[in-house]
Amino acid sequence: MSESQQNNIPRPAVFLDRDGTINEQMGYINHLCRFNLLAGAAEAIKNLNNAGIPVVVISNQSGLARGYFPEELLTAVHEKMGRLLAEKGAHVDGIYYCPHHPEAKEERFRETCDCRKPKPGLVLRAAREMNLDPARSFVVGDRWSDIKTAANCGAKSILVRTGYGRGDEQYIGPHQEIQPDHKAEDLLEAADWILRHIRM
């Protein structure tokens, strides 16, 4: 197989939930001061970067739909995330978020979409635009909606016990038909597991 043919083969990736997985779970991030990276998150992402694995953030942002904060703040938060990661030698390759909610304050966001997790739209859009293979990829998050997102796009799932994760594991998980492929204390531990199991 030629190099050009190999370059056209979709790659596996790691899709990360944002709040509670990369940064502290603070409810709605309605001010820049409320965005703080979790310990080990930058190192985890750097380890994935160094292995040549695309890292993509997928996040529900219903606070935008509900009018709790403007789109400009969401942009500023993601810029801050990029700066904080860069200070540790890490980066994300893409950021995809769902701004929709059926009861959105702003009409342009008021819809039942295919991108609000656990629907797979964010992953599938990233896969199309970045030439990624969901079936060889991983979804990491602190909510059961992330675990279901992985199932809905054929990826493997990891529940982290940061953010809502420990509570979801104890109170939500036992009643769910869909279970994570792995559970990790935090993103760093999750990244280590991914690096041992990913098929490049």
Polypeptide structure, described:
The structure is a single chain. It is built from eight helices and six strands; from the N terminus they run αβαβααβαβαβαβα. It is globular, with a radius of gyration of 16 Å. β1 (14-16), α2 and β2 form a beta-alpha-beta unit. Helices cover 38% and strands 13% of the residues. The chain has a single domain (3-195), classed as 3-Layer(aba) Sandwich (Rossmann fold), CATH 3.40.50.1000. The chain has a six-stranded parallel β-sheet with strand order 3-2-1-4-5-6, sandwiched between helices. The chain has helices at residues 3-7, 41-50, 62-65, 71-87, 121-130, 144-153, 165-172, 187-197; strands spanning 14-16, 55-60, 94-98, 138-141, 156-160, 182-184. The two termini are 16 Å apart.
Main sheet makeup: 6 strands, parallel
By CATH, the superfamily comes out as HAD superfamily/HAD-like
Helicity level: 25-40%
Instruction: Determine Rg (CA atoms, Å).
Output: 16 Å
Outline type: globular
CATH class: Alpha Beta
Q: Helix segment count?
A: 8
* Class from helix and strand fractions: alpha/beta
CATH architecture field:
3-Layer(aba) Sandwich
What string, H for helix and E for strand, traces the elements in order? Answer: HEHEHHEHEHEHEH
Key structural traits:
single chain; 200 residues; alpha/beta; Rossmann fold; six-stranded parallel sheet; disordered N terminus
